[in-house]
Amino acid sequence: MKPSKWQILKSFFHTRNYTERAALEAHQQKQLDRLLTNHNSRFYPHSAKLQDYPVINKRIFMQHFADINAYGISEKDALSVALKAEESRDFSPVFQTTSGKEITVGLSSGTSGNRGIFLVSPEESALWAGYMLKRMLPRPYLARHSIAFFLRANSNLYTAVKSPLIRFEFYDLLEALDAHIPRLNAQKPTILIAPAQVLQQLAQHPDLAIHPKKIISVAEVLEPQVKTRIEQRFGTPVHQIYQCTEGFLAHTCAHGNLHLNEDMVYIEKDWIDRESGRFAPIITDFNRKSQPVIRYRLDDVLIANDAPCPCGSAFARISAIEGRCDDILDARTANGEPYALYADFIRRAMISDDLIQEYRVEQHGKALHIFLTPDTEQTRAAATRNLDRLWQTLQLRPFNYIFQPEQTRPLHQKRRRVTKISPYGENP
Ligand SMILES: [Zn+2]
Q1: Are both 391 and 255 inside the same structural domain?
Q2: Does the keyword Ligase apply (predicted)?
């Protein structure tokens, strides 16, 4: 059972913009009331007050999988359905409930073995698709659009968006990029959607001859210098979608600024550092009924931005999605106090030298493993110089550097440029 086009259209036309904060807050309150008094989950309390609900994370969400979802589907059953579909590359993992409803099972491409599983009904897919289209389709809406979408695995969620006006082609990230070029050139997409690193590789590909009107970066942190490179190649701004399995959380407006989708998701801020505006979002999705997402803390670092946007939207702005909480390195001040070193500092240190085209930095205790492209004496010296300067500026204890050659990484592997493998104290 596919989500109906009628439902997608309905969601498309119901999705509106808010220019008044008060109107948005009234909408949110109504949606919260509806969600909290109607959810069908055994895990969550039955209270109309959001504050009565525990703040949970992915670990708790997965531990209570069967009690959280409205159908009592076990994690094991859901996983086996999803894995079977992924192996056969038949992208329609569906679970039949006892009442005959077909629930799509999706896997999140989580790192280090903590994959999430999500359940979505056809109605929820339709709602999501309509909302996504409204937020991302360039105007005029009724023009013909041809979308090229790079994904790790297809799912019913995405193929739902198919109509006479919208052509939709799926490109599998598990295949090599070269193999996709002829098909892309033949499709001539007007909209190109892919993870940042794939957009970057496409931008550098000599045989690519497409001229998309809109480019949308998904699934990974889009770094400013990468954004510029892609924009220069295609001559059009790069937009962003912040979408994870837990929900569609933010999109860029016509002015290229990121706004939280506050009409879809209620977002509480768990402050990491109020001064710099860094927070982890605690999300409550108004529309997920198969598997309610209520007060779910994401392991992501967002940077709040209080400046009003010229687009006039009442949706809160964020200046950036900085990465996962794991991407915050654990440093020490000169006096030995713990110091949270944001990935952004490392990034700036690395890109301040033009010779360094690509980099990856892993913290292993007191050592930083550094992977440079190109990996030469000059780039190593530049990285050393810039990092040394960073410790001095911030008055931190220096790390040891271990330079290693970078290996080719498959496209479907999420790129994390700065990661903490083990914290400061836990390493020889
Ligand atoms: Zn805006």
Answers
A1: no
A2: yes
* Distance of CA 314 from the midpoint of ligand 1 (Å): 9
Q: Reduced to 3 states, what is the DSSP secondary structure of residue 196?
A: helix
What total number of domains does the chain contain? 2
- 426 C-alpha to center of ligand 1: Å? 43
Longest dimension (CA), the chain: 65
**CATH no. for residue 164?**
3.40.50.12780
Give the closest residue to 133 by CA, choosing from 269, 28, 251, 292: 251
Phi, psi of 233 (to 5 degrees): -70, -45
User: Tokens representing 353?
Assistant: 């030298």
Please list the ranges in the chain whose pLDDT falls under 50: 111-113, 427-428
Smallest CA-to-CA distance from 215 within 376, 198, 414, 206 is with 198
Q: What is the whole-number distance in angstroms between the Cα of residue 24 and the centre of ligand 1?
A: 15
> Up-side HSE of residue 39: CA atoms within 13 Å toward CB?
30
Question: Would strands 191-195 and 145-151 be described as parallel, antiparallel, or unpaired?
Answer: parallel
List, for residues 364-387, the tens digit of each pLDDT value: 999 999 999 899 999 999 999 999
Expressed in angstroms and rounded, the spacing between residue 316 Cα and the centre of ligand 1 is 9
What is the CA(258)–ligand 1 centre distance, in A?
7
- Helix (H) / strand (E) element for 118: namely strand 117-120
CA of 312 to the centre of ligand 1 (A): 6
Calculate how far, in angstroms, residue 175's C-alpha sits from the geometric centre of ligand 1.
Answer: 36
The reply to whether 290 and 163 lie within a common domain is yes
Looking at 295, 325, 355, the residue that finishes a domain is: 325
pLDDT at residue 58 in the model: 87
Token pair recorded at residue 135: 């937020």
Output the CA 213–ligand 1 centroid distance in Å. Answer: 19
- Are residues 285 and 404 both part of a single domain? no
Boundary of a domain, candidates 325, 356, 387:
325
Beta bridge partners of 166: 145
- Looking at the fold, whether 286 and 405 belong to one and the same domain comes out as no
In the chain, the amino acid numbered 199 is L
Domain that holds residue 372: 328-422
User: Cα 10 to chain center, whole Å?
Assistant: 26
Do residue 206 and residue 340 come from a single domain?
no
**345, 299, 15, 215 alpha-carbon torsion, rounded to 10°:** 40
244-278 pLDDT, tens digit each: 777 789 999 989 899 999 999 999 999 999 999 99
Domain match, 320 and 253 both:
yes
